[in-house]
Amino acid sequence: MLSPINQSPIAGCMRWGAWGSKFDTAAYREIIAACFDNGITSFDHADIYGDYTTEADFGAAFKQFATKRSSFQIISKCGIQMLGANRPEHSVKSYNTSKEHIINSVERSLKNLHTDYLDLLLIHRPDPLMHPDEIAAAVTLLKDAGKINQFGVSNFLPHQVSMLQKSIEVEYNQIELSIIYTEPLFNGQLDQCIEKNMIPMAWSPLGGNIFNNSVDPKNKRVLDAAKMMTEKYNCSVSAIFLAWLYLHPAGILPVLGTSKIERIIEARDAKAIQLSREDWYKLLEASRGGQVD
Ligand SMILES: NC(=O)c1ccc[n+]([C@@H]2O[C@H](COP(=O)([O-])OP(=O)(O)OC[C@H]3O[C@@H](n4cnc5c(N)ncnc54)[C@H](OP(=O)(O)O)[C@@H]3O)[C@@H](O)[C@H]2O)c1
């Protein structure tokens, strides 16, 4: 299956607004344009980012790119209900994968993002109360109305994806994955992506910012191991971490967290780095704190 999501890394927008850089409309416009000029055309959102404000802040800038809409890919997620001033009607943090909630959330995201459709909708977390037929009904309706093009999940374990696939095709699983968080190598998530032709996206591909916590023993081991390789591969430490993801045969798409265009371009270029298998395992060993069996 070919992905309409650009195979370059995806620009994650979680830290661009209230939860991070607090971009104003001009700053959003600048980074969207710079991404576009450098071949980064996929943007990752969720209804909840910035306490439900980031989609609208991004959308205020994105509407100025309306004539180029088909050259961009917009991803959003729904299913988490957060507490806070922007959702006073919520009395408990919870998940909601009801048909009504999925449809309403997508409608709201489209309005906020100033677009007629999402290229990809993801269910943000597995909901203990989810039923595959109900999710399938919402997704089918949204697809038939031209409001979403593709469908996937996020943070789902293989058995949860399999349950959903009883009723609907699942094309992506966006999971936490990095040299710091290697669980998906061993818990079946990546195996399932290969088996089912699903595309894995890695969130927090740099471990959610290990650079600011290098006293942590695991972070330090991994940073030291990567530093040893920067001369050999003529690149930065973060490019080594991304090259580590790119070597995996599942075809991982990193969802970048940076709000700096130069780091986004560097991440794009990391795709050309061919880590050796031995260097890949040296990094894994540093992360695990010991050899594989
Ligand atoms: N599906 C989910 O459940 C889920 C959960 C979390 C996140 N996400 C998605 O994944 C995206 C990425 O997550 P993340 O932000 O945790 O990813 P990340 O790329 O692992 O971490 C980004 C952080 O690292 C910093 N950073 C990057 N390169 C650096 C360097 N060379 N030196 C120092 N600091 C550096 C960035 O700061 P600068 O801005 O200064 O570069 C930023 O604060 C989010 O935007 C969101 O779209 C999805």
Write up this protein.
- The protein has a domain at 10-170: TIM Barrel, CATH 3.20.20.
- It is 40% helix and 15% strand.
- The chain has 11 helices and 10 strands.
- The strands form 2 sheets. An 8-stranded parallel beta barrel has the order 1-2-3-6-7-8-9-10, surrounded by 4 helices. A two-stranded antiparallel ribbon has the order 4-5.
- α1 (25-37) packs across α3 and α4 (99-113) packs parallel to α5 (132-144).
- The longest helix is centred in the C-terminal third of the chain and has 17 residues, at 217-233.
- The radius of gyration is 19 Å and the shape is globular.
- The two termini are 35 Å apart.
- The mean pLDDT is 96.
- The structure holds NADP nicotinamide-adenine-dinucleotide phosphate.
- Residues 12-15, 44, 124, 154-155, 174, 203-209, 211, 238, 255-260, 263 line the site of NADP nicotinamide-adenine-dinucleotide phosphate.
Set down the secondary structure blueprint.
Layout: E1 10-12, H1 25-37, E2 42-44, H2 49-52, H3 54-62, E3 73-78, E4 80-81, E5 94-95, H4 99-113, E6 118-123, H5 132-144, E7 148-154, H6 158-165, E8 172-176, H7 189-196, E9 199-203, H8 217-233, H9 237-246, E10 253-256, H10 261-269, H11 277-288
- Name the CATH superfamily assignment of the domain at 10-170: NADP-dependent oxidoreductase domain
Beta-strand share of residues: 5-15%
CATH level 1 class label of the domain at 10-170? Alpha Beta
Shape field:
globular
Mean pLDDT: 96
Could you name the ranges where pLDDT drops below 50 across 5 or more consecutive residues? none
The helix-and-strand class reads alpha/beta
Oligomer: single chain
| Share of helix, binned | 40-55%
- Bound molecule kinds, no repeats: NADP nicotinamide-adenine-dinucleotide phosphate
Strands side by side in the biggest sheet = 1-2-3-6-7-8-9-10
CATH fold-level assignment of the domain at 10-170: TIM Barrel
